[in-house]
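Handout, section B. The chain below has 126 residues.
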Amino acid sequence: QVQLVESGGGLVQAGGSLRLSCAASGRTFTFSLYAMGWFRQAAGKEREFVAAISASGGATSYGDSVKGRFTISRDNAKNMVYLQMNSLKPEDTAIFYCAAGRRAYYSTSAIDFNSWGQGTQVTVSS
């Protein structure tokens, strides 16, 4: 069983920055063996892929809408994954979810992630 707890969300003005964190824990969960990802869901919309990172941290992928603005990273010693969000736009407003993958290499599809956090709200004002 994996527990994922997101933090760092909040209200920010357009053009600002936020850093989301996700803490992973679980007695039988070896964090360094699995890819991690961030997804988001805006009100009335489907869940959207944001970013993913491989187990080693050596490979990353981003959704088209966040490329060049967001950066995903991880610290395997601390069982943490981060999402640095810069140049935020009102359309980035959503609940952001951290997810643990089923294997080491990253995926951009939600079906390949089998554990999810409760989410953290990000609101960007214009």
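Note. The radius of gyration is 13 Å. Compare this with the example in section A.
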